[in-house]
Every structure is written in C-alpha cells, then in structure tokens.
Amino acid sequence: MDIKLIKSQFPIFQEKINGKPLIYLDSANSSQKPKRVIDRISKFYQKEFSNIGRSVHSLAVTATNRFEETRDIVKKYINAKSREEIIFTKNATESINLIATTYGEKFIQKGDEILITELEHHSNYVPWHFIRQRKGAVIKFAECNDKGEVDVDEIRKLISSKTRIIALTHLSNVTGAILPIKKIIDLAKTKKIPVLIDGSQAAPHLPLNMQELGCDFYAISCHKMYGPTGVGILYAKKKWLDELSPYHGGGGMIEEVKKDGITFAESPAKYEAGTLQTAEVVGFSESIKFIENIGIKNIMQHEKEIMEYGLEQLRKHNSVKIIGDPKSRGSIISFTIKGIHPHDIATILDEDGVAIRAGHHCCQILHEKFGIAATARVSLGIYNSKEDIDVLSKAINNCKKVFKI
Amino acid sequence: MDLKELYQEIILDHGKNPRNKKKCDGFNKEAEGYNPLCGDKVHVFLKLDDNKKVIDVSFEGEGCAISMASASIMTEIVKGKDFDIAKKIISEFLTMIREGSKITINNVSKNENVTMMSLSGVKKFPMRVKCATLAWHTFISAAEEKKETVNTEKID
Question: Which CATH number fits domain B3-151: 3.90.1010.10, 3.40.50.720, 3.40.50.10240, 3.30.479.10?
C-alpha cells in the first residue's frame, strides 16, 4: 500500500503549518478530506443541486437520486438489513440524542436504569442525563479498569431488572480500547435489553456489520470517516424506527396534515425533518468509496502498525506516561509528560507543524477517574506514516528542551 | 522564535515554582475561575482590609504553565496595593494581552512591569489568551464578591 500516494489525495497536506509540513495526528477529533469528497460536493452544487423530495423537475429527481443512492451505499457498507434503517443526522451526537429522546420518552420511567460506561464521550452521557432529569431515571456507570477497558463481566454485574438500555462506545476516544461489544450485545439480548453503540471512533477504523453485531442502534459521525462535517448516521433496527415517535417535526416527515391531527411518514423520512445537508450527504458517498478502494482491513493493518510504532517511540521518552494499556487498541494514544501540561505540549508541538489534541477530550468522568485534568492525544488516519511519529518524537524532545526537563 | 516569546524564563520560573500557591491566612474573600474548554481551574483567596487594600492574596489551581505562571504573577503584582489601583493595573494588563499595548500605569515598579510584560507573548497564540487572563479576572471577581464562578467562555 502506497501511503504517500494515498496522502497525496488530501489537498490539506500541501499546506504549511508555521512554515513546516503538516503532521496531522488529530483524526479522532476529525479526519482530513480526500479531494474526491471535496470535488463531489462542489460538483453536486455546480451540476446537480436542487432540493430533494417532492419537486418533480429534473434537477430535483437527480438530487434525490444522488441522496438516496448514498443511503444505499451506507446500507451496504455497514450491512444493515434494509435501507429504511439508515437515518441521516447531523453527527453521532444527534444520532444519540435522537434515540435518548424518543426511546427515553417512551420506555424509560422513574427509577429505571440506563447503563453506560466511564469511557463515554460526553455525547453518550449528556443526552441520557436529560432523560435522567426528565424521567427520574438512574444512570449506572460501568467502571473501566486501569488498562482503560470495560469488560463484559463489569456490564453483567450492573444489569438489573430495571435496566432499560445499555449505551456504550465501540472504541474509547481516550484510551483507544476496543470494547467487546459483540459479547455485550449477546448478553443484553438474553436479557432483552436494547443496546446503543457510539461508533464515532470505531466507524473510521473497523469493519462494520450491523446484522452480525445485532445491536439495536449504532451512531456514526461521517466527518471522522474522511467525510464532510454536518453528516451523521443513525442505524436503528426497523422495529424501533416503526415503534418510536418522530424526533423533529417539520416538512418531509409527515404523511398527512390536518387541523385536528397529523400522521407521519414511514422511516427514514419520519426521522429526517426539513431540508438536510444534501450536498454533504452526497459527498459522503465518496468517503465510503475512498475507504472501500483501500479496504478497511488494509486501513486497520496500516494504522495498527503506525500505532504500535508510536507506542514504542513514546515509551522511549522517560517522562512520557501513556494513559491506559488496552489489550485491543485502536489507533489512539493518550499520554502525559511529567512537568509539562498537555496544553503546553500541544502549543509547542504545533510550532513543529504537529497537530495533536490536548484536554479532557469530552471525557471528564474518565479523566477524573485517572486523577488527571487533561492528556495529550495522538490519533491516526490512513495518511499517517512512521515518519510522522519520528517528527512527533523530535517535537516532544523540543517540549522537554523548552521546559528544561 | 514565537515559542521563546511565549515561554520566557520568567514564565517558566513562575510555572514551575508558583508564588503564593496556597490558601493564605485570614482570607476574607475568594472566587473560582474555570476554563471549560481545557479544564483549567484557579481559586483565588484574598484578604482585603477595611480600606480595600490587598493585605494578602493567594491561589490554588491546576492548569498549563501559562495559567499557573499568570496566577502566580498576578498575586505578586496586586499584593500590597489598593484594590482600586489593582483594578486599573489589571485593566491595562488585559488590554496588553489582547492588543499588545505597553503597560504605562505608574503604580507598578519597573520590575513588576517587566514581569507582567513577560506574558505578552500569548497575543500570538489566540487559543492561549484565556489561560493568561483567567486568574486576573478571578481576582476581581473575588474582590467584588461576585458569586458566580468566572467562566472564560463568558468573559472577554
């Protein structure tokens, strides 16, 4: 696999950052975009744009077809059972809010339990917190161990007759741990508890197969998958989409509107009120083609190699402490440097063109657990190479020099 | 070169060995400051006398070198001064951080002026400006007994 050739498809890497080549190690935050995605959006606006849905003119038909083709591409890519199970949202956050609100409204009552984990991003905690407030429900947190993982036994321990949903991440955006979600889903099935998976970090890096996984809900942020911002996916089993109420009200999601009553469209229209981010959704079809052209297994293998090299190089720095040591790790490494705050690390690295994330990464519960306010985080994409890690390592030396460590 | 302007000796020194980082004895006012974007926290303790003179001031907190050094420097600058004067100094400090102006107020010594100016490098790092200003806002909040935590997202 020619990484240089793949990287050359990303126009951003022609830019200089503080006079240096860009070393982008912040893909867990958002990935960069290949030219074919950018071009597809531009082409859609230039040649195919009009609003999708009801208009009968030719452009509307073309635009609608392109939009709906993307739904088919997504359906196939994640191996959903039917295209009606694919809902376009703004991002994974909105996907989770949609389920927390509609499912929570209908099925969660006072004293009922919502089971999440200490690894969750705020976007898989705060929406459940709203339900806790509104319904008087209880949120239980499955503990993560000192390796930064949550195991099946921990989930099993916390399931009770009051558990109404289990919501957890597929891949931690801090420790990089890949959770045993298949086992957790199988366990939940025996107890008839639905499971929502936050796939924000997993979707760009792991093969997705909804029918095999058997989860009830799966949330994706397309901008982390080399796709445009403003596009998210909610996968939900059809039975839920039929059973739950609409989330947003407006145009496009109705069947018939009268002064004394309204009936709603079937899924997916039922959950897609108003004009959506049409061009971006169409652009996302190219992201999936980009991933499929390389092959997700090849992406996994490449990123694993770079991640392991990264761990090896970071461990050579005595003052560097890596947060978590999961057995199964995605391409995310969070660390601290003794005597240098992560924000200072990020500022100094940036001078060398190295873009990392510093902070609590929207996981304050987890950072509190580890007794640290912030960490520095390196996260990889298909465009990263061992050379990037070497530049990172040198830039860390520069940090130590600035701080005289 | 900008990095050297940001992490000047004075800042590294205050960052590593912050002055007045404790709860000062007999404090009669306090306030908390918080930067929700990065989690930096600072808690300012203040002893004002009846004439509103800053008898003692200290802080506790955690955060980056810039925020800790800035808090440390703040305590050194305002200690012993009348609150009204301190407020004027802080106003000039905040303008300096935002606009890159000089400190011209004559209520600070030459040394104090140099110390405050050591933070001027943050102007070139817009994401770090709030690290440098948090403690100063929090000091005013303490003195004026504002109940709410100073939140960097709600101030200039």
Answer: 3.90.1010.10
Q: Which strand (E) or helix (H) includes residue A195?
A: strand A195-198
Share of chain A residues as helix, strand and coil, in percent rounded to the nearest 5:
45, 20, 35
pLDDT in tens, A263-274: 999 999 999 999
Contacts of A12 (CB under 8 A, 6+ apart): A22, A24, A32, A33
Q: Which pLDDT score, from 0 to 100, does residue B156 have?
A: 60
Q: Which residues of A are catalytic?
A: 362
Query: What residues of B are in contact with residue A344 (Cβ under 8 Å)?
Result: 7, 64-66
Q: Are both A274 and A205 inside the same structural domain?
A: yes
CA B38 – CA A361 distance, rounded (Å): 9
Mean pLDDT of B111-140: 94
Residue of A122, A126, A347, A352 to mutate, interface with B, max B Cβ within 10 Å: A347
β-sheet bridge partners, residue A20: A17
Co-location of A141 and A113 in the same domain: yes
Q: Does B145 touch chain A (CB under 8 A)?
A: no
> Among the three residues A242, A274, A292, which one is the final residue of a domain in this structure?
A292
Which CATH number is A314's domain given? 3.90.1150.10
For A323-381, write each residue's pLDDT tens digit. 999 999 999 999 999 999 999 999 999 999 999 999 989 999 999 999 998 999 999 99
Q: Which residues on B lie below 8 Å from A374 (Cβ)?
A: 38-39
Q: Can you give the residue range of the structural domain that contains A385?
A: 3-30+295-402
CB-nearest partner of B38 from A340, A359, A404: A359
Which two structure tokens, joined as six digits, stand for A45?
Answer: 């606006």
Whether residue A185 sits in one domain with residue A249:
yes
CATH number at residue A276: 3.40.640.10
**Chain A residues with beta carbon closer than 8 angstroms to that of B68:** 341
Q: A249, A276, A292 — which closes off a domain?
A: A292
Using a CB–CB cutoff of 8 Å, tell me whether A373 touches chain B. Answer: yes
Same domain, A115 and A260: yes
pLDDT in tens, B35-85: 887 778 999 999 999 999 999 999 999 999 999 999 999 999 999 999 999
Q: Quick check: A122 contacting B, CB < 8 Å?
A: no
Q: Which of B1, B2, B3, B124 should be substituted to probe chain A, the one whose Cβ sees the most A Cβ atoms within 10 Å?
A: B3
Distance to chain A for B120, nearest Cα, Å:
16
Across residues A233-253, what is the average pLDDT? 97
Query: Complex ipTM, two decimals?
Result: 0.90
**Amino acid, single-letter form, for residue B5:** E
